[in-house]
Every structure is written in structure tokens, then in C-alpha cells.
Amino acid sequence: MLPIIAIVxxxxxxxxxxxxxxxxxKNAITGKLPGLTRDRQxxxxxxxxxxxxxxxxxxxxxxxxxxELLMNEQVQLAMQEANAILFVTDARTGLTxxxxxxxxxxxxxxxxxxxxxxxxxGLDVDEALTDFYQLGFTVYPIAAEHNFGITxxxxxxxxxxxxxxxxxxxxxxxxxxxxxxxxxxxxxxNRILGENRVLTYNAPGTTRDxxxxxxxxxxxxxxxxxxxxIRRRVKITDEFxxxxxxxxxxxxxxxxxxVVILDAAEDITDQDLKLIGFVIDCGKALVIAxxxxxxxxNYKRNIWREELPWRLAFADFIKxxxxxxxxxxxxxxxxxxxxxxxxxxxxIIATAKVNKLLxxxxxxxxxxxxxxxxxxLRYAHIGGHAPPVIIIHGARAKSTPANYRKYxxxxxxxxxxxxxxxxxxxxxxxx
Length: 431
Description:
The chain is an alpha/beta fold. It has helices spanning 15-23, 66-81, 97-107, 125-129, 150-158, 185-193, 239-254, 270-281, 298-311, 334-345, 351-364, 402-416, and strands spanning 4-8, 41-47, 50-56, 84-90, 112-118, 139-141, 173-179, 211-217, 220-226, 257-263, 285-291, 320-322, 369-370, 373-374, 376-384, 389-395, 424-429. The chain folds into three domains: 4-158, P-loop containing nucleotide triphosphate hydrolases (Rossmann fold), CATH 3.40.50; 173-345, P-loop containing nucleotide triphosphate hydrolases (Rossmann fold, 3-Layer(aba) Sandwich); 351-429, GMP Synthetase, Chain A, domain 3. Helices cover 33% and strands 23% of the residues. The strands form four sheets. The protein has a six-stranded mixed beta sheet with strand order 2-3-1-4-5-6, with helices on both faces. Strands 8-9-7-10-11-12 form a six-stranded mixed beta sheet, sandwiched between helices. Strand 4, helix 3 and strand 5 (112-118) form a beta-alpha-beta unit. The longest helix is centred in the first third of the chain and has 16 residues, at 66-81. The termini are far apart.
């Protein structure tokens, strides 16, 4: 096991900036607005030969209800997991009553605490640290944004943490869960994991950052990515949401399979279709989950079943599941389609097989004429994976009309079992 370091503190003290510094990534969203982070965010760092896991947390508050209370519970879970705790304070604003309350809670944990006074750049350091000494911890002055004091802090931490070499990394299937706000993405991930790993709340916009969670199931290994809700650009006015949408779109780019979640309690929207189209344009393997299915009567279910096929005619290669994330109905079946879509996207196909199929497909339905001349599709080969690309060469191949291209794509998809992934067929004229 790698040693685990949890970063805690009140909002807007620079926890996410320190997380990015310790993991040498930009995975945690940062900005001048307090409360950008809400869930636990995990990352891996390494100093020399000493690797470790870092947990970024939402800002700890004194709230006793609402979403802030749920955020505090996530902070408590992170502290329980950790071997050591980085307690981040703000040297510019000085010691606050909330800092004192956090310190009192930390003393009860019987864990190694590292108190950091962040944002000391431009300050008289000795004077800035004076009040923090009364908390009873060794104080480390840092400026996370400018990488000041980080080396001294990590040296002190790693000298006392258990050392463990990381196990050999296996290839994990990265699965991103996306959809409009409040469709149940976090609830679905918690159902899959069997625990309240990500924060859920009955309001859109609860998730702001993209959360990466490793998960093993039936000898398959996954990284589940929870994302913020994505809605129409013209409706995004909140600065938090601008950060969140960027992170969600980045998560799609990083994923190998994307699960688009639709809300059965509402009609399928143009925004849903645009999201699906965006994922296809990105070349990602794809599964669709219609959530909150348990809450529908038979009349509404029949409307969905009738409307969905023609609304998704452009994406008829995608498997649709009707589920209830809250009650678990149909959730386990998602992984059958996730695995199938992943295998299709990365399938190794021999050139000889593609050529034989091309011969059979064109024999069953020969290409039409182009400007009075025959199109002759002579041979094909694989041009890439994720998504699969088939390149066809021939005389006047680029003149192949759209309806025949669609026929070729559908035929190759069926013969090669390439369901759940976009399939690209390119045409090159012989010289």
C-alpha cells in the first residue's frame, strides 16, 4: 500500500493548488472562487523513489446542514483513510476560528499533522506565522502557486511516512459518466461502488470537478470518472459551472468508454443528442443509460421506447439500458455493454479478413456508378483503433456516395461485431 496524504482546510486556502503541485498534474480545478472542490479527488505523486497517494478535499466549514454538511463528511472520510494530514491555512488572512475548529478535530485523530501556512509570498514570514504556532503543530511556510517551500514540506512528510513501492500498473478501462445536471451520475457511481464515494445532493451542479475512482469487477479493472453536468453554453453563467464543464469535456477526451446518462423523468432533449453526438465525434466507445426508469408508469415507458430509436437513428450502434441508479435496477448490466464497446474500439483485425469482407460486401451489393463510370473498391486495411478506421482503396473510391458508404459501415460493423464504438471508413483513390 502506498502512504496516503489528505489535504484539508477551510475553503479558498489553496488546497487544490497544493494537490496539483504534489501530483505534478492539473487534475484539481483551481481558481479564486471558494468551494470549487466538493468531492474527494485522488492523485499519485512521487518524490525521488518514494511514491504516495494524495487526497484533495472540499473546504471544511462549520455548517450543520445542506451541501456543506455533506462536504464535511467527505473531508472526515478522507482524514480517516490517510496516514498523514496536510492542514492548509492562509497566511494572508491569518488564523481564523474555523482553522482553530479544524485543528481541534485533527488532534483527536492520532495522526501525523503537517500545518502549512500557504500564500506567504510577499509577506514577512516570521510575522505571518506567529499566530499559527498557538495551534501546537510545526508550521511549514509555503506558496503552493509559486512552488515555494514545497520541497521542505515533502521531505519532512516522506521521512516519516511508510515507504512502499507501487505495484505494477495494470491497464484500467477509463469510463466517464456524463449527462445534463441532476440526471444521477454521482448516484449511479455510488451504486456501482456500493458506498457514498462521491457527494450527491438534490440540486443540479453538486459535482464540480471530475472525480477519478479505481474500481475492480469480475477480473476487470476500471477507472470510473464522475463529471459535472453539462448543459447548453448560453445557460452557463456561473463561474463554477464554467470550470466544471471544461473538466467534464476533458474527462470525455481521457476516457475510453463514455456512459451518457439520460433522465427518464424528462423527455430526451436536443442537449442530450448533442452530447451523444459530441462523444461520437470524439471517437469514443459509448453506452447510453436511461436513469430513473423505476419512477415511470407504463404509458411513459412506451413513449420512451417508441421515441428513442428514431431520435437516436444517427447512433443506432449504441446499446441503451433502462436503469434506476437509486434502486440498482439494471445497473450491473451496464458493464456487459461497457466491456463490449471497449473491446470493439480496440479490436485487432487482420488485413486479410478486412479484404475478404470487402469482397463479400461489394459482391452482394456492388458500388453504383459515379459520373457514368464504375466505382471499383479493390482492397482495404485497418488504419487505426479507438475508433476503428478502415481505409478502402480503389478507382474513384472518393466518389462513393453517402448511402453506399453507410451500407459499407453497417456491413463491416455487423461482420466484425463493432457495436458500441464509432467506425470510420475512409476512401482513397488509386493513382
